[in-house]
Amino acid sequence: KAGVTQTPRYLIKTRGQQVTLSCSPISGHRSVSWYQQTPGQGLQFLFEYFSETQRNKGNFPGRFSGRQFSNSRSEMNVSTLELGDSALYLCASSLGDRGVSPLHFGNGTRLTVT
Amino acid sequence: DAKTTQPPSMDCAEGRAANLPCNHSTISGNEYVYWYRQIHSQGPQYIIHGLKNNETNEMASLIITEDRKSSTLILPHATLRDTAVYYCIVREPTNSGYALNFGKGTSLLVTP
Lengths: 114, 112
Known about the structure:
The complex is a heterodimer.
Chain A: E1 5-7, E2 10-13, E3 19-24, E4 31-38, E5 42-50, E6 53-57, E7 64-68, E8 74-78, E9 87-94, E10 104-105, E11 109-113
Parallel strand pairs in A: 2-11
Antiparallel strand pairs in A: 1-3, 3-8, 4-5, 4-9, 5-6, 7-8, 9-10, 9-11
Chain B: E1 9-13, E2 18-23, E3 32-38, E4 45-50, E5 55-56, E6 61-64, E7 70-75, E8 84-91, E9 106-111
Parallel strand pairs in B: 1-9
Antiparallel strand pairs in B: 2-7, 3-4, 3-8, 5-6, 6-7, 8-9
């Protein structure tokens, strides 16, 4: 079974631009979550989508948004990029039950903002 | 979700068992213990999880104390490829979404 796929692997953007990251979950997984990882803050939860609806949200500004499509694929968008948005963005999928089943992560998109 | 405490770093000789402790003294009856690890530049990898009983899979064993206030992840024969940051996470299943608090984890170094 294919794992979680994230594209692209690397991105370089300029301050003020916007960016869209893509995530394809494991087949059959209905929940997709996004995390941001930086050296200073570690792994931080951004949001989770289940059946095309945002089910949970972390403490990030409104510049960070996402969506999920009917095939469970998800995209994450960051608008008006800031230098501090440079990070590894990780997507994870799970079956989407009440949360007993574990998360399975992709290898992330490394975003650099200059 | 209950807070967890892990040592910041540990060493282990290759071929020996690596025993990674985790304290979760405020765990509630419905909360599961999960272990993930992250090898440099990769996404976190799920290892194992449990509620009350000890669990074993092809990667590791999870030993949970009877009072559930602490647990130990055991890698029975550590290899160099097991060098990673290991995260112990406690969470309660809920219908309101799935957000993991990873904390800082334990950086395990396996040496030749």
